[in-house]
Design brief:
The complex is a heterodimer of chains A (68) and B (135).
Chain A lengths: L2 H49 L4 H10 L3
Helix pairs in contact in A: 1-2
Chain B lengths: L2 H74 L13 H10 L4 H26 L6
The chains are: A mainly alpha (68), B mainly alpha (135).
């Protein structure tokens, strides 16, 4: 393989890795966002229960039903 | 072609050979550099993936913990089914309690206080572990 061909191959390899890396990054970000939303939903329900325990059961049932 | 021409031609060939050698060295260095960068990027990506996995696992555990708290509260709501604890005759209960110097309201308040404090405590504990300040 000539040095120039090697250079082209390396460039293609780097571009491929960059594309894959970007796909992984987007997937990870999407997973993280989903988990953050889920966490926030549960925290909100527990805050509501702490503030108003007499409504605990309906709040808990609603939060658990909204589970994605 | 005289001797001078031959010397000049040889000198030109030698110069070109040196230039070609330098170019090969330069391209080889670029290749090595690109390969090293690609390898480093791969190591970096693997490290990031590992960190992400740990972070996502922590988030999942936290969600599971909060869900468990809500499920305990929800389970409590099903702890006294009518099939096992039928509706009492409240009128009769009031009469009996009043005959004994007690009120049904005091008993009801006691039961409600127990429940409300219990579910409030489950929520408070779950939020305290999340470093959530008391409202």
């Amino acid at each position: 393989m000539t040095p120039v061909n090697k250079k082209i191959m390396e460039a293609a390899l780097l571009a491929g890795r960059a594309k894959l890396g970007e796909q992984h990054r987007r997937k990870r970000q999407s997973d993280r966002d989903k988990l953050r939303n889920d966490n926030e939903r549960l925290l909100t329900a527990l805050r509501e229960i702490r503030a108003n325990p007499s409504l605990a059961w309906s709040i808990a049932v609603r939060a658990l039903e909204q589970k994605p | 072609m005289n001797a001078n021409d031959i010397i000049q031609r040889n000198a030109e060939c030698a110069r070109r050979l040196l230039e070609a050698g330098a170019e090969i060295e330069r391209l080889t260095a670029l290749h090595v550099d690109a390969a090293a960068r690609a390898e480093l990027a791969q190591i970096d990506n693997a490290r990031l993936r590992e960190e992400d996995t740990v972070e996502l696992a922590k988030m999942l555990l936290e969600i599971e913990r909060l869900e468990t708290a809500l499920e305990r509260i929800e389970q409590w709501s099903r702890a006294y089914p009518l099939t096992i604890f039928p509706e009492p005759n409240l009128k009769r209960a009031r009469e009996l309690l009043e005959a004994g110097g007690m009120t049904l309201d005091a008993i009801s308040a006691h039961a409600m206080r127990h429940v409300v404090e219990g579910v409030g405590e489950i929520a408070r504990r779950a939020l305290a572990s999340s470093d959530e300040p008391e409202a």
